Amino acid sequence: MAGANQYIRQVLHHTEPPPPVNARFFYSSPIPIDDPLSPLPPPTTATASAKRPPKAFSEYDNAALDKAWHDLRRKILKYNEEQGEKSGSNDGSRSRAGSTNIQGSRRGSGSQPATPRSKPIRLPASSLSQVEGLGDGTSEGSAFGEATHVPDTTGNPFVRAPSRKQTVTTSRNERPARPQVKQHDTYDWDDDSHLLDQNATAAETKDVRPSSAPSNKVAVGVSRLHQVEMPNLQMTPIYWTPVHDEAAVIRGTWFYQETMLPVETAVANMLEAGYVDLQVWTETWKDELNSAVEVGAVGEEKIVHKLWPDKLPKPPDSRPSSRHGTATRSDRDDLLRAVTSNLAEGAPETPEQTRDRAVEAACDIIDISSGPGGADNKASGTSTYGYNGATRSYSSFGVIYANAKEARLLKPSLLPSRYYGRRPLASYIRKGHKLGIAVVRGFDQRIWNKIHPSKSSPRAAKAQQGAATSASNVPPQAQAKDDVPDENTNVTDLIFVIHGIGQQLSHRMESFHFTHAINAFRREVNVEVGSKEVRARFRRDMGGIMVLPINWRHSLSFEEGGYRDGSENPARNEFTLADITPETLPSVRGIVNDVMSDIPYYLSHHQPKMMAAVIREANRVYQLWCRNNPGFADTGRVHLIAHSLGSIMALDILSNQPTKVPQHLSDPTSIDLDAEQLDHFLFQTSNIYNVGSPAGFFLLLKQSQLLPRVEGPSATAMDDPIANTLTVCGERAQYGCPAVDNVYNIINPYDPVAYRMNAAVDATYSATLKQAFVPSATPGWFGVGTKSSSIWGGSTTAPKDGAQMPTLPRLPSNVEMEVHNFSREEIAEKRMALLNDNGQVDFFLSVGITEPIYGPSAIQSVADQAKEKPYTELNKDDLRWECMDSTNVETKSFYMLSDDGRVGMAQVIYSNVLGVRTTAQFTSKIFSQDPSKPHAWSSTNLSNLQFPNDKHDFTADNCSITISEKGTSYHIKSNADAKHIVDLKFTQACPGLVVGKDGTSYFGTDPQKYWGRMIHKFWPRCQVEGQILRSDGPVDFKGKGMFVHALQGMKPHFAAAKWNFANFHSPNVSASLMNYTTPPSYGETPVTVGSVTKDGQILFTGASPDTKPEHTETRSDPDSDWPEPAAVRFTWVGKTADGKDAKAVIEGSLGERADRIDVMGELPKFVKSIVQGASGVKAYIYQYTPKMTLKLDVGGEVTEEEGLLFSEATFIS
């Protein structure tokens, strides 16, 4: 054993250390934390997460992480040294920085423990091994027990795994003995006594667990809202409980050349060990490669490095050294096997254990080669994604190190062979040809940027500009690049959002989690703050804005509910909410219990507990914020947004809040919140924004008034000290007298629980005020400027950059007061001014369900393009998904008319709501040929949405739409609904097209700065193959079809009030027409595009006004009140390619409708009526499938075509 250790030192200590590797940290998460427009985290399973490639931290974050990693490594070395000195001869084990533990390495390589476990044990995956005090590390039922706690080598910072000589299988409840380790306090590399196996027994071991083991946390991300915990390499949110935003972190050292994604941790360490073993960075290795090329296949066989060692031989007692005291090349060939064998005696039980042992040996080789003060060249963390997805160990592969940076992983059939004459190095690698799997040592940012270019859009640019950071003097731009810090990006205004009822529901329905909503809201704030119009209204000293959730409900449990008298009475009846809930209507009762029960709880004896939960959570988050942002407590401002029940609790808390925070609480970072048990906030609230608030109703219930606080610190109070008296104001502990500068009550006029608050100040005076609306500089509502303040500040300072701040004038009275009680009127006016600088509290939202009347000039119809260019043929790239990051609906629809007369459709609908949440649905429908039988209809929500192949394709779980290499066919496959399995192929039977230049109509008063658009792209005639498999058998759709790619780049009901669609096919002719009419906001402008094809060619295209649909007869639909079409005339007018006038007409009765769809039919009736009344949206779709005749007139030559028509008429508003 001593001889083997001497041999290791001979090989490694007499050569120059390898160059430091350019490591890169990655995280496995669906949320890109460096994107201020990152989507919300979807409900994620471990399997789904594993399908996603890891994301790279920014350059700025990576530099900080790597520095912290090496700093922690040195601290752990020092800690282990000190613990060794303190423990003296005591038994125990220490771990060193930079080694991969047994179970951690097993996770990295994707293998499983040899012995089954009763339940999974979460283990760290860091190569900064667990030191004492960082966790138990045991695994129930593991064959290795506490072998995770690796014994420390004497004074050097690297340690190998403990001997497995004494390994036994333990029971579930029995903890294995900790191996006895001799402690050393020297960095003498030649002192090898610490490498001797310790034959300790369980009786001789002692569990030593110091409490101050080194660890570290590094803030990361564009807004510094997440942190990476070291050494266990986990990324967690800083200010809230993780909601699918906790992620494993990987420190990569070797990377796949094609993607620059990290090689699996275990494989990377084996590659690095081989790199060290062969001394690839030296001139000697270059000479060996050149010699191998000259010799041929025999020579190339000799330079192949086996990625994983073969069966381990018994280690020799000694190794001869060369005459000059260095190891020979033949010595180095056995280095990894020798070190691996030295780790433990006895044959391993499984291949996984063999690999574990090899990885441990590799880590020791890497550590020793760099020395105790050198760089950490090991990969660390748990790999969940490998080459093309699944993780691999490449157990039979060999490696050829092509140069100091590049290597190739080759399977056995690609390795050099004298028998087959294979020469991969000379014939492929050196010529730059693709062979095997190319990997590179060290991360290359330039290549990464080329492979993964950053997305850019005006909205994203605004969000990046507006994103605030919680790291002092570190702007978001500098987190990706080394920009000069901009003080305006530092947060000066912190917004806490207090939720209302219903958060218990998020335990069962993930999408209702409040954190998701606030993450989305923060995105919108970033976009708004990034616009010049909004920033012009900021006070001069204002920087960034940060929005954080106050999740108070998740810390509470009311299951003790029922009767309590406090005594220990054995006859006491204890019951819970579950006990009194009947089993009937479980879904409805579950929602009522989870959502509505918070209200009676608050009105019960639980109220103090609920208020304390809000205070405790807000103070916890504020304290964390101040610790991460030194000086904020002195200069920053805190605002509250309180929703629903949250506004009631905020009113209660602020009514009891000290007018000024006591001096002994001025430094929040030094306060022990557990010991203090505060009944108020640690911060002074500048502004409170009540949203959807019933606070006015609660003031009425308690017969209280809304009053300003006497001696309040607001600007108005300072300007008018005469008003700041008890005649006008109230005192602390007086309900309705909040300690706050400004109160804003934001009211959505269609929110049934939102109440006014002006009357709670003075009913008579409030009746004289005109209704105030939240003004806006942009579509968002943050651009509020006031006469004497900004919405954030309550400050009279001038706006930034000398910009002219629009004023919100004090609104005049509607009528004179009937009784001129000037004393009362003056008091009311002063109270209003003290409560809000704008002179009133209530502000109504201009609800975005209708638009102003812009007129027809605000739409630039595609018909205008068609006058100059009738149509443009499509190529493959024109059919990419756009995936807009703002509100839109994008669809790919496939319509089938089979040879035997069956009509069907398949469609993917991809939606983005406000740039906040993206969803996708796959729908398919088979129209029944028997009127007595229902249509076969399926609509399924999709998850794990992806747009591979440069956005040409769409994939989701159990669903895909892929385009062919030439871009002439689509393959639609879906088994998302097991009762509706779709397998269809659409192939162009004539060229695809858009009408006009780009097929787009633009919405906006400025054509150069449009705010919406509508696009339709067509394959007007296709050959269809395939079927839809139902439970009663397959339905064959061999025949003809049509494909439409549509994009509504705005809110759908803003773009169109009604639609008409026609799709006609005969044996020789196909005709399609798409028409919509805009709502009154755009002058009820009709927009129509259409095409007629014949014999596989585009005959002509047309556009409005001549190409159009007409409902020649209608009948009233009593259920919807819409005029349902009974007979139609579809007209196409245009010119052929050779200039002939062309016209086509389909006219006649539609017959009985095939189907009517109530788009909002799934909503409860009362909800449906509210939506319809508020928005005017009442969407119905009428569908028809009659046989019709198309009359075609080309240059005076008239023909008729009998065929099948699929037609839709849609009414929206």
Automatic annotation (TrEMBL):
An example Gene Ontology molecular-function term: metal ion binding
Residue span, DDHD domain: 681-896
Biased composition (Polar residues): 86-115
Pfam families, alphabetized: DDHD, Svf1, Svf1_C
Region described as Disordered: spans on this chain: 34-59, 80-192, 307-334, 451-486, 1101-1124
GO CC annotation, single: cytoplasm
PROSITE patterns, per database record: DDHD
Biological-process GO terms, alphabetical: response to oxidative stress
Compartment(s): Cytoplasm
Composition bias, Low complexity: 460-472
Extent of Basic and acidic residues compositional bias: 172-192, 307-317, 1107-1118
Keywords for the protein's UniProt record, in alphabetical order: Cytoplasm
PANTHER family hit by this protein: CERAMIDE-BINDING PROTEIN SVF1-RELATED, SVF1-LIKE PROTEIN YDR222W-RELATED
Protein family per UniProt: Belongs to the SVF1 family.
Name of the protein in its database record: DDHD domain-containing protein
Organism: Saxophila tyrrhenica
